[in-house]
Amino acid sequence: MSRGIRIAAGQGFWGDWLEAPYRQVTGGPVDYLMMDYLAEVTMSIMQKQKSRDPSLGYAKDFIPLMQRILPILAERKIKVTANAGGVNPRACAAAVADAARRLGLQRKLKIGVVSGDDLLGRLDGLLARGHTLDNLDTGRPLREVRDRVLSANAYLGAWPIVDALRQGADIVITGRVTDTGLTLAPLIHAFGWNTSDWHLLAAGTVAGHIIECGAQASGGNCLVDWQRIPDLANVGYPIVEARADGSFEIVKHPRTGGRINVAGVTEQLVYEMGNPREYITPDCVADFTTIQLKQSGKDRVRVSGVKGKPATDKLKVSIAYFYGYKAVGTLVYAWPDALAKAQAADRILRQRLKDLELDFEAIHTEFLGVDATHGRLARETMESVDVPEVQLRVGVRARSEAPVDRFTREIAPLILNGPPSVTGFAGGRPKPEEIVAYWPALIDKGMVEPCVELLEV
User: Fold this and answer.
1) Where are the alpha helices (DSSP H) in 293-417?
2) Cα–Cα distance between 354 and 190 in angstroms, integer?
3) N or C: which end of the chain has fewer CB within 10 A?
4) Average pLDDT score over residue span 411-418
């Protein structure tokens, strides 16, 4: 395919703006709609859902969203790549297929399913074969927390999605693939790039990284001159307008709000980036220091010059495990002396918890309106100001539930037996919550076998 293609970002996380995909497929011409749902903790949430109901474990709001746009996708021949499948991509695909049948789209759509990333059921076998899955941050072996593991998923790359597209899939639903792979795969498929085209693969990876967080690349959450970003209520999500030589432009649909400029794209490029010379994915290693950005028109940024290197022989594994319990409680104190009252309430609460000899791993206090964002430095500045109101927020963490539960019963009495002028007890008495901790690891690529299936609607 020689002409360029347009890949539109429709979701940047599970919970993103539900209107965005509809606006992307109706606001102008696009060839692909990319929707990114998964974050590290998301997989453990989905795994819990699946353990309670084997038919779940995916982003449920993906189904009504797809039902809304399926007729448009079929009419305009727009293909979809989405990792909404979570830990149950087959069930997600089956639900989309059911929605398509209800809409009378039989024999008009093919759904590709990419799986093989879920390693939870294989962990003991992998450990027995010497794959220790050491924590990348601490070096600890996974066996130390094996009995508390909730989910374990390898990050697959773009090539299984490419395989599904080559088999004729109109919609590709995956489990845990890289965010960038959802955009890179359509580029590989459209332009016929090879597995060793490292510069081209790196360029596609950069394109995917720029649009993976949705409107964060088109004016949302933007620091530079944010007051002048127009009409964020009508923000246009970003679109990659790509060519076979690896160059591309970031644009958005006309008559939409937001802004696409070099500063905003640069902010997104440095998001979640470690070593800029080695942005490692399963598909390649991209050198972000080679990226060239140019404002090529209104709401249009040209990206070129990206260089890449061969991929490594490892895949990253995202593991979530049960760590303990936490709870957060809040009280709001009013002027006068709002900060002093909140500080006194904190001292009283801590003394009572100490007297009870509860085994907390951590107790953390913030004074919202004073130091919650900038910490101690802000407090030193604000202590001389009689602020009108302060929200006391206290969080506790423990390995067992009992001390956390007792904390939730100690904060409420401060309304009547602590400092005066409590004006709000947000959300009622807090409840203990389970803590899910993150364990990053590496595994040999040969130990993970992606699976690609096709469902006929």
Assistant:
1) 338-355, 375-382, 401-411, 414-417
2) 64
3) N
4) 95
pTM for the full model?
A: 0.94
Q: Residue 2 — very low, low, confident or very high, per pLDDT cuts 50/70/90?
A: very low
Euclidean distance between CA atoms 259 and 238, whole angstroms: 9
Nearest to 46 by CA among 152, 131, 171, 197: 152
Asked if residues 288 and 265 have their Cβ atoms less than 8 Å apart, the reply is no
Contact indicator for 207, 242 with CB cutoff of 8 Å? yes
Spatial distance between the Cα atoms of 191 and 164, rounded to a whole number of angstroms:
15
DSSP label at residue 446: G
Structure tokens at 340: 């002093």
Close Cβ partners of 117 (under 8 Å, ≥ 6 residues apart)? 153, 154, 155, 156, 174, 175, 176, 177, 448, 450
Q: How many whole angstroms separate alpha carbon 304 and alpha carbon 59?
A: 34
The contacts found for 142-145 with CB under 8 angstroms, 24 or more apart, are 142/319, 142/439, 142/441, 145/321, 145/439
Let me know: does 7 contact 50? Beta carbons within 8 Å: no
Tokens of 56: 């779940």
> Token digits for 236?
């246009």
Exposed/middle/buried for residue 321 (C-beta within 10 Å: 0-12, 13-18, 19+)? buried
Q: What is the mean pLDDT of residues 104-130?
A: 96
Q: Which residues pair with 151 in a beta bridge?
A: 320
Phi first, then psi, for residue 454 (nearest 5°) are -125, 135
Q: Give me the phi and psi of 322, to 5 degrees please.
A: -75, 130
How far is the C-alpha of 341 from the C-alpha of 392, rounded, in Å? Answer: 9
Question: Cβ(149)–Cβ(123) under 8 Å?
Answer: yes
State mean pLDDT over 235-240: 98
CA dihedral 52, 56, 60, 64 (to 10 degrees): -130
The yes-or-no verdict on residue 1 having pLDDT over 70 is no
